[in-house]
Amino acid sequence: MSIKVRYFASLKDQLGHAEAELAVNGPLSAREIWQQLNPSVSLPEGVLTAINLEYAQLDTLVNAGDELAFFPPVTGG
After folding, report:
1. Could you tell me the residue range of the domain that residue 17 belongs to?
2. Is residue 77 one of the residues assigned to a domain?
3. How far, in Å, are 28, 62, 63, 65 from residue 24 at the CA level?
4. What is the pLDDT of residue 74?
5. CATH no. for residue 38?
6. What is the Cα–Cα distance from 76 to 30, expressed in whole angstroms?
7. Are 71 and 5 in contact (CB under 8 A)?
8. d(CA 41, CA 24)
9. How far apart are CA 67 and CA 77, in angstroms?
10. How far apart are CA 21 and CA 67, in angstroms?
11. Cα-flanking dihedrals φ and ψ of residue 12, to 5°?
């Protein structure tokens, strides 16, 4: 099974792609998934995550079949 990972806004631009798939044998935290898929890119401070369209913490476990999304920090002016 796999986890579908989506990147939005500046994260998509920084990484050069909007989506990825990660084959998994068991649950991983959102942080661990970032590290496996992007080993040479540090996880940006303040990044937001959502699992199956609901906001989640970086240490929340993601299971096979889930969709994980990473969003850059929201700023306004």
Report:
1. 2-71
2. no
3. 8, 10, 8, 10
4. 78
5. 3.10.20.30
6. 25
7. no
8. 21
9. 31
10. 9
11. -60, -45
The answer as to whether 65 is a domain residue is: yes
Please tell me whether the overall predicted TM-score, pTM, comes out greater than 0.90 for this model.
Answer: yes
| 42 three-class SS | coil
Q: Identify the segments of the chain with pLDDT beneath 50.
A: none
76 found inside a domain:
no
Q: Using alpha carbons only, give the angle 14, 37, 63 rounded to the nearest 5 degrees.
A: 125
How far apart, in whole angstroms, are the C-alpha atoms of residue 69 and residue 2?
A: 14
| Domain count along the chain | 1
Residue 73's pLDDT is 85
Name beta bridge partners: 51: 54, 68
Amino acid at 64: A
